[in-house]
Amino acid sequence: MGLVSVDTIREARRLLESVVRKTPIERARDLEAPQGGPVYLKCENLQRTGSFKIRGAYTRIHGLSEAERERGVVAASAGNHAQGVALAAALLGTKATVFMPERAPLPKLAATRGYGADVHLHGESLEEALGEATAFAERTGAVFIHPFDHPDIIAGQGTVGLEIVEQIPDVATVLVATGGGGLVGGVASAVKAMKPDVRIVGVQAEGAAAFPLSLSAGNPVRLERTQTMADGIAVGAPGPITFEHVRSLVDDVVTVGEESLSRAVLLCLERRKLVVEPAGAATVAALLEHPGVFESPVVAVLSGGNVDPLLLLQIIQHGMTAAGRYLSLRLRVPDRPGSLAGVLTRVGELGANVLDVEHSRISGRLAMGEVEIALKLETRGPEHCADVATQLQRAGYRVVV
Q: What are the helix (H) ranges across 142-235?
């Protein structure tokens, strides 16, 4: 099967004109200094259903025959594809059944049901949910809507690329979060057809990086396990169709670590006022982790914004720790009235915010007449952390960071 053409992607765009948003592009000046030029964020987190997935799902289901739609559709997803399929099916008047991992985020689960899909929880991973969805299709005759490995899916996702070229005509590099490869394959097909010199770079989480291994081997390779907070791109192996698109059209695939992902989510929230899930923020993580590598102007696609509020809280805390804005230390102080108050007063004078304090007299490490005070502090960054620890030592406290 050949690669999806730009003409096919343009047809998908005409189909989607009244269905999806042409999402905005935001300038990210705080990310520009390391890159040496303009950086823009393509905000697919503001798309209907909270991600780009509605583009491919609607294109795929619209292409079914009337008889196929009567049988219904089935999909498997950690959340974003599920919502895209559920909404697309509702708009096109067909029944959707969706299989999701048992630990799928509750907001994604609720949203998928809210769009009218019949949702089943199955297995610990997306791979297990995919297996059950394909078995359901075989049993019932429902049409399986693959999350990435189908030409119509790739064509729908490729409409993001058409918009990028229109919005930033002089774009030099496009960064795309990459799981199974449907989005990056579609964007590459669109952009390369119009501007062959633009570099397309896929971004994968280190704990779910199937493409580097697959490209090196020359064929799709399945990972033994995936482990990342970026559940939206935690795909064990590319499909044969997306693999060919990436091998033929994508210039590079880079990986990012968990600290960079959490810092990226935090940065989007604080500086851009955008709620972005870890998978969606992978492109920003690449800018943080690989400064100066990408030719500008750079467009980084924020692929989704569906994140569980409880997970978001953990990610924010993780991101603040990674950015050096939390400091944990232990102090040994004389066991006399006013010692704790004196420590807290000095911490306040140094501009740190006390998040947690623990006062203990029971430890084999303590000398007679000593107590240990464990502090968790919010600071302004790594330099402030170092200054707080130094100033406390100069004040006569024994400090263990």
A: 151-167, 182-194, 210-217
Q: At what angle do helices 240-249 and 210-217 cross, to 10 degrees?
A: 80
As a whole number of angstroms, the distance between CA 315 and CA 280 comes to 13
Of the CA atoms within 13 Å of residue 296, those in its CB half-sphere come to: 18
pLDDT of 364 higher than 60: no
Instruction: Give 30-94 as a DSSP string.
Output: GGHHHHTS-EEEEEGGGSGGGBTHHHHHHHHHHTS-HHHHHH-EEEE-SSHHHHHHHHHHHHHT-
Adjacent-strand bridge partners of 205: 256
Task: Give the strand order in the sheet containing 298-302.
Answer: 25-27, 39-43, 298-302, 173-177, 199-205, 252-256
Query: What pLDDT band is residue 367 in, cutting at 50, 70 and 90?
Result: low
Contacts of 228 (CB under 8 A, 6+ apart): 205, 206, 207, 208, 234, 258, 261, 278
Q: In what order do the strands lie in the sheet with 143-144?
A: 118-121, 96-100, 73-76, 143-144
Q: CB neighbours of 400 closer than 8 A, spacing ≥ 6? A: 329, 330, 331, 332
Q: What are phi and psi of 235, to 5 degrees?
A: -110, 130
3-state secondary structure of 361: coil
Structure confidence by residue, pLDDT tens digits, 131-144: 999 999 999 999 99
Q: Are residues 160 and 55 in contact, defined by beta-carbon separation less than 8 angstroms?
A: yes
State how far the Cα of 131 lies from the Cα of 374, in Å rounded to an integer. Answer: 49
Contact 54, 115 (CB under 8 A): no
pLDDT at position 368: 64
> From CA 46, how far away is CA 274, in angstroms rounded?
9
